[in-house]
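INFO batch 0412 | record 1 of 1 | parsing
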Amino acid sequence: MDRRINILPVPTWNKLSVNAAGDSLTLPELTKELMDASAPHFEAGLLPAGVARMEEITDPRAVMEGIPEDAPLESGIGSYYDQYIKTQANARFFIKGTKETAEDKADIDMKTSVRISAQSPYALSHHQIYAEEGSTLSLMQSISSDPGAEGLAADLTEIFAKKDATVRLFQIQTADVAVRSYQGVAIYAEEGATVEIVRAVMGSAAAACGTRALLSGKGSSYTLHAIYFAAGSQYFDFNDIADHRAKNTTSDMYTAGALAGESRKILRGTIDFKKGASYAVGHEVEDVLMLSNKAKNRIVPLILCGEENVEGQHAASSGKPDERELYYLCTRGLTPKEANRLIVEGRFAPVIDRIPDDEVREILSAEIERRLSLYEDSAQ
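INFO prediction complete | emitting tokens
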């Protein structure tokens, strides 16, 4: 079996080293004895009205309509990773929402958290969200760790959104740099369903994220709002795919990041218009601030088209903070350091503002401030 993860849907020249994640993200072999000895620190909050806990994993083809037989039912990280989690998970959280949850809420319905510690170094969690027709669900997942704790945090989240359902998933990762983290998401959306992912990646020595959205129903939509800040020798690897299979489907993927020190990052962003996806629209944008000459940034935007009458756009910008912006801000009374901070924080603000939790927003803002301070100290 191919053990690679975050595989580019259509490979390019191998010499570019972008066809899959690097060796530092190879999944470790975990024995049953090792997993039994590592009880995960996993917490799940109370369930709101209209949401029930499920004991068994739902078969997606049994509950979703219109999924083509050739459609891969997998996360953006890949099928090997998905099976790795499903067969070894030591924490499971499966929920089902009904129309009773369809109120227009701005807060979070549910929260789950994983914390890596010396006593709990391995946490493999499997989430499954099944949103019935017309229902509305939101879930926040967080990954953190004790300072200096070594370990592995890996999560697979499967989202099944029935007709006209709305699902929002917030993923916050602030683990220590001694931890490796993985966050895979698989989305299956029926007619009129809406799925939104908000993702913030700040920690881990090596972090992999991958989302695949299968838009199999007419008028279904998927949006991704992601931020990251890599510093030191951190390595971040992302693989996000919007798979359009029906008419009038839409996808919008926006990512903003900053790279400092000798950090490395690669983003594979794919918009795939399959036959039958006429009048579909897909947009992809990444904006990266390079805070160090030693940091390495790679972007692989990919648009695949098997249908006419579609609209696909991608854009990417990468560079140091704009000198004209810095000059303008300094003429308004800010110091160069304050101006630089304002520009960096401004890149992250639109995504952070989408998180409806004051405490989480404060944690992310504090982490960005801390990393900016480290970058400024090392740059002197």
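INFO post-check: The two ends are 48 Å apart (CA to CA).
INFO record closed
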